[in-house]
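Re: that chain you flagged

S.,

Sorry for the slow reply, it's been a week of failed gels. I finally had a moment to sit down with the sequence you sent. For the record, here it is as I used it:
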Amino acid sequence: MRTRLLLGLTGGTLGCVLAAAMLLYALADREADVQSDQRLRELAWALPLQAPPAWHLPPQRDPGEHFDVQAWDAAGRPVHVTDAAPVLPLTQPLGYAVVRFHGERRRVYTDLVNGFHIQVSQPVALRQRAAAHMAMRIALPLLLLVPAMALLIWLVVGRAMRPLDRLTQAVSGRTPAALQPLQPLEMGGLPPELHPIVAALNSLLTKIEGAITAQRNFVADAAHELRSPLTALKLQLQLAERATDDEARKIAFRKLHERLDRAVHLVQQLLTLARQEHGLAPPACADCDLAQLARRAVADHALYAGSRQVELVLAAGADTMATRVHGHQEGLAVMLGNLVDNALRYTQAGGRVTVAAGMEQGSPYLEVADNGPGVPEASRERLFDRFYRPDGNQVWGCGLGLSIVKSVADAHQARLALRANGDRGLVVTVRFPPA
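Prediction finished late last night. Pasting the structure tokens below so you have them in one place:
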């Protein structure tokens, strides 16, 4: 930025000086033409026509004042030519003209004075040299000002860039380990133009610190949650090794498979949550049919529902109603799959889980309801926290399903609502913005 300002301002100053010099030359050339034309006319009327042999011009001290005079009588006979003057033809009509004679352009004034044709001429090149000399005398001081202007511009730009240098040093002093969001960048002493940038940087530092803190907490929680099933796996493996008969070994291996299933489920949930929250690029969005997603979720979980002896149904009308939203279809499928999986996991045998999709007051929604044990109202808000599980819960899980649901809902600007399903059970509703 500093280099661009210096080059731009210096180049602009030099361009202005050159443009001023050209304008001065044009004005000087015009002024020289006017003065020289007036001098031609004055000479033509001031010659002593009564005594042609005695004609002479005053001494010409300035080379730019060189004039040549010719005169003809009424019969057209030459009566006078100044020394070393070219013999020009008599131009018609009378007045000013520019003629070319032997490759040289000359400015000529012709008039009829007391019966004599008087013609006074001057080379155009002399006028141009006089105009250039006049313009150079004025433009030379301007050209000498360019280095002084460049130095002044360098000083002014350097002084104006000092606040940006201080801001750069303040930002470079922050490290990923200590972004210091509680100590925002100071705006004192900075020009008003930098205030929006400082405010945006402070906001960005706060967001980055929050993201790093959340990542640290996520890694710590994940390590804590993984430690327990891995420890249990090791203990179960030791029990299997110490089994003395086939029946004890069979029971030990069955427990080992259950522990492995829990560990695999936890890892899958962690990977899903990482993909939903820390994607490198936003997923491509398209029109998604919520009714079709509901049908697919019911079909995908039918076997699991049967193994749990839980009735999994699609709400009446949800299979025919056209309910569409603009979003990421894979993310919505993951969200609905976690809702259905949670409902089936926490619903007792003989229970019922209902999946619905529809429109309410112009807003599309997805809903999963179960008649399981339910969740106390005081604990419902914490269900979306990572690794949180209500006390007294006997069903194994990792506490990440609803965190994934919330992450996907936030990405689609959807609202999550939890309510009791009558006397018991839980209803989770995902309400999308109106189309």
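What I noticed first: The radius of gyration is 48 Å.

Talk soon,
D.
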